[in-house]
Automatic annotation (TrEMBL):
<dbReference type="InterPro" id="IPR015867">
    <property type="entry name" value="N-reg_PII/ATP_PRibTrfase_C"/>
</dbReference>
<feature type="modified residue" description="O-UMP-tyrosine">
    <location>
        <position position="16"/>
    </location>
</feature>
<keyword id="KW-0597">Phosphoprotein</keyword>
<keyword id="KW-0547">Nucleotide-binding</keyword>
<keyword id="KW-0805">Transcription regulation</keyword>
<dbReference type="GO" id="GO:0005524">
    <property type="term" value="F:ATP binding"/>
</dbReference>
<keyword id="KW-0804">Transcription</keyword>
<dbReference type="GO" id="GO:0030234">
    <property type="term" value="F:enzyme regulator activity"/>
</dbReference>
<dbReference type="Pfam" id="PF00543">
    <property type="entry name" value="P-II"/>
</dbReference>
<dbReference type="InterPro" id="IPR002187">
    <property type="entry name" value="N-reg_PII"/>
</dbReference>
<dbReference type="InterPro" id="IPR017918">
    <property type="entry name" value="N-reg_PII_CS"/>
</dbReference>
<dbReference type="InterPro" id="IPR011322">
    <property type="entry name" value="N-reg_PII-like_a/b"/>
</dbReference>
<comment type="similarity">
    <text>Belongs to the P(II) protein family.</text>
</comment>
<dbReference type="InterPro" id="IPR002332">
    <property type="entry name" value="N-reg_PII_urydylation_site"/>
</dbReference>
<dbReference type="GO" id="GO:0006808">
    <property type="term" value="P:regulation of nitrogen utilization"/>
</dbReference>
<dbReference type="GO" id="GO:0005829">
    <property type="term" value="C:cytosol"/>
</dbReference>
<protein>
    <submittedName>
        <fullName>P-II family nitrogen regulator</fullName>
    </submittedName>
</protein>
Length: 67
């Protein structure tokens, strides 16, 4: 997933490809009036500046059901 590539490692003289890259998923639900502030905060603090930093999706929550 994503556009970033894995990297090669050396173990006991053998070179191998490491394809797994750790990921973080952030999900939040906020009031409409603070959406822009939250997006800006996430953009400033969660990005690394490398390919694969991800995307921010903003959408309406039609219903919440407590379980």
């Amino acid at each position: 997933f994503g556009r970033q590539k894995g990297h090669t490692e050396l173990y006991r003289g053998a070179e191998y490809m490491v394809d797994f890259l750790p990921k973080v998923k952030i999900e939040i639900v906020v009031a409409d009036d603070i959406v822009d502030t939250c997006v800006e905060t996430i953009m400033q603090t969660a990005q690394t500046g490398k390919i694969g930093d991800g995307k921010i999706f903003v959408f309406d929550v039609a219903r919440v059901v407590r379980i």
